[in-house]
Design goal:
The protein is an alpha+beta fold and 180 residues long. It has three helices and six strands. It comes from Flavobacterium azooxidireducens.
Length: 180
């Protein structure tokens, strides 16, 4: 077995109270969670068209399919399952998701609870969503083995990342994860 390089910052406690920006991709960047569609602006002008025809000023949104809805549900599940977890913002895209997750041990009422690390939380969410997607018949569905994280250290970074997540559907054609 190959030695894998750790994606985590050496010596950092990923179960500590902090805000984290997380990105995780579907294996092979397969677009299987939904699609990005253009939304018309103005009075009741909802327009769906191919993204190649979209004017950059037109807002886009993600239309999740049954698999994407499962991922959406499991991201929310993290907050209900773990009282010390809060999701500040997230987006499920056709082949990946982004989220800002906060671990806050001060929310724990029962002091005996062990705070899970970011890796354990992401592992639980990805396992739960994969299992449910497999149950629907998509047996080959898989996430990339790991995920990318960034420790959010200040308000400026938080605002930039929050906006990046919110604008991700509109910027889909420029996204490094974009697949036709």
């Amino acid at each position: 077995m190959k030695n894998r390089k750790s994606n985590r910052m050496k010596g950092f406690d990923y179960s500590s109270n902090n805000l984290y920006f997380v990105t995780s991709c579907v294996k092979n960047n397969l677009c299987c969670l939904g699609r990005v569609i253009a939304v018309g602006t103005g009075r009741d002008l909802s327009v769906q068209s191919s993204l190649s025809e979209v004017n950059p000023e037109i807002e886009c949104k993600v239309e999740l399919n049954q698999y994407g809805l499962i991922v959406d549900e499991k991201i929310k599940w993290l907050m209900s399952q773990y009282e010390y977890v809060d999701i500040h913002n997230y987006i499920v895209m056709p082949n990946h998701f982004h989220l800002i997750i906060e671990i806050d041990s001060q929310k724990v009422v029962e002091k005996e609870i062990k705070i899970k690390s970011l890796s354990s939380l992401m592992g639980a969410m990805k396992t739960k969503s994969s299992n449910q997607i497999h149950e629907l018949g998509f047996k080959d569905f898989a996430w990339h083995r790991s995920f990318h994280d960034h420790i959010i250290r200040d308000e400026k970074a938080y605002v930039n990342i929050f906006n990046y997540i919110s604008n991700n559907p509109t910027n889909w054609l420029k996204d490094k994860f974009y697949q036709k």
